[in-house]
Amino acid sequence: MDKKNSPLTYESDSDTRSSRPENSPGPESGTDGKKTRAVRIFKNIWTIIKNYWMVFRGWYTRNMTRADKWAVVICLLFSFTIWLYVMNTSDTGYENKISYVTVDIEGKSAIDAGGMSITSGYGNVVTITLKGKRSDIGGLSAADIKAYVDASDIKETGRYNLPVLFNLPENSEIISVEPSTIPVSVDKNTQVTRAIKVKLNYSANAKYTVGDYILNYDTVTITGTQTALDEVAYAAAVFNPGEITTSLTLSGSIALYNKYDQVIDNPYLKLSVTDIIVKVPVTMRKTVTVTVSFTNSISSNYEISITPAEITLVGDPQILNDINEVSVYTINNDLITVDSPFKMRISSINLPDGVVWENSEQGINITVERLY
After folding, report:
1. Residues 193, 215: Cα–Cα separation, whole Å
2. What is the pLDDT of residues 241-294, one digit of tens each?
3. SS (H, E, C) 243-274
4. Cα-based distances in Å from 203 to 215, 236, 285
5. C-alpha span between 99 and 29 (Å, rounded)
6. Could you give the domains of the chain?
7. Strands across the sheet with 248-253, in order?
8. Residue 109 in 3-state DSSP?
């Protein structure tokens, strides 16, 4: 091919060297020289590809009839269809190696019924190699593979090597599994009971009082091997409500802690209860005015005496914030005459739920006199 008309243009080493001083170091010396040579090679390859594309485009647009162009398109589509057919029907020898497949333990009911617990065997992973069509297994990952060991035949304590079993996707075959067995240890159960603590991280206004927590369960029974149980110092539920402005009802999970206040993450320990509900009473004290009501309007010819004039209420802040006075009795003033004043001692009053009258044993004395 004539160099002038060839699409394969490149820069020869002789052309480059002819324009360089005889004693000057070449661009290929050292690390910089290697980079320069790599850039030059890439440029030459890109130039070749670009020129071939220009030749093909010119040939396709100038030398082909409309029928020829359609023939090329049909051939390409036909070739692509054949490729898809081969990929989906003929390529059954494709292999996919999948690592970090988690192995579950199934069939534990017989172990539990026998008063035993699994002490090791959880959290193991295996690597499996599958064979099949690329279209069937090429996109599989560890999350798509179900691996497990069957512990249903274990009747006694000890250490067992159980074969790893699989629920495989369709049209797949196992080539290898590493490791092919998982060690599972079983030991006798025992139980301990621990009090449940509540860890409440909060802030509250100084005028609020946070009372004792009320739990729906006070204790939890923990089942497991003696070695695992010896590590348990207490059980607790942790809550982070932030700023408290009213009474709360919280629900959460129970965790086990060691003597260093660290959470014990042991799947071999079983709890009689795992969730708990905690009521957190929050109260405040507020002094309010005591009033009485009348069935009919009254004028200045009545003298009213209420002792004490104020009382202290204790209750939830959200409720007390809306209470500034309390009407303790409704008086029929038509029954009050000049000679017959109204007198009464009050020892209980109607209040909203969650609000109590402090020092209610002192009572409230009410006297209403008609002057004329």
Report:
1. 16
2. 999 999 999 999 999 999 999 999 988 899 999 999 999 999 999 999 999 988
3. EECCCEEEEEECEEECCCCCECCCCCCEECCC
4. 21, 20, 18
5. 44
6. 13-89 (no CATH), 94-188 (2.170.120.30), 190-280 (2.170.120.40), 284-370 (2.170.120.40)
7. 214-215, 275-280, 248-253
8. helix
User: To which residue do tokens 């059954």 refer?
Assistant: 92
Which of 295, 296, 304, 306 has the alpha carbon at shortest distance from 363? Answer: 306
Q: 144-185, pLDDT tens digit by residue?
A: 999 999 999 999 989 999 999 999 887 888 999 999 999 999
List 188's β-bridge partners, or say none.
Answer: 116
Question: What would the DSSP string read from start to end of 118-185?
Answer: EEE-TT-EEEEEEEE-HHHHTT--GGG-EEEEE-TT--SSEEEEEEPEEEPPTTEEEEEEESSEEEEE
Residue type, 40: R
Residue 121 has pLDDT above 80, yes or no: yes
Write the CB contacts of 354 (distance below 8 Å, at least 6 apart in sequence): 247, 315, 316, 319
pTM comes to 0.56
Owner of token pair 């220009």: 54
- Higher pLDDT: 19 or 297? It is 297
Asked if 284 and 207 count as a contact pair (C-beta separation under 8 A), the reply is yes
Distance CA 221, CA 272 (A): 5
SS3 content of the chain, % helix, strand, coil (to 5): 25, 40, 35
CA nearest 136: which of 92, 176, 103?
Answer: 92
